[in-house]
Amino acid sequence: MTRILPNRRKEAVRRPTDVGKTLARNLLIRALRHADLHHVLRGQPGIIGIVVADPKDREVFVDAGRTLLRSLSKDMLEIELDRIDSAYEVLEFDGGKGKRSNTTESAIRNMLASHVRVFAFASDPAEIPPMFQIAADGIVVPNPVDADALRGALYVVLGRAPNELVDAATGLPLVIIGTLVKPGRSVGQIVRRLRLAKQVEPAPVSPKERREHPCLDDLHGLGEAAEWGRSLARDLTDYRAGRIPWSDVDRGALISGPPGTGKTMFARALGKTCGVSVHVHSLARWQAKGYLNDLLKAMRAAFDEARKDAPCILFIDELDSFGDREKVNERHEQYTREVINGFLECLDGAEGREGVVVVGATNFPHKIDAAIRRPGRLDRHIAIPVPDLEARKGILRHHLGDALPEADLSEVAERLEGASGAAIEQVVRDAKRRARGERRDLGVGDLDQSLPTRLRLSDAMYHRACVHEAGHAVVGCLLAEESGSSPIEARAFREVAPGAPVGSTAFDHRCGVVRTRAAYLAWITVLLAGVAAEELVFGSRSDGGGGSNGADLHQATVLAATMEASLGLGHSLAYIVPRDGAEVLERVRVDASLRRTVNRTLGECLERAKALLRANGPALEELADVLGRRGRVQFDHILRTVLTADRSRAIPVPDADQDSRAEGGQVLRTQTMSKFF
Question: Which GO MF terms does the UniProt record name (predicted)?
Answer without folding.
Answer: ATP binding; ATP hydrolysis activity; ATP-dependent peptidase activity; metalloendopeptidase activity
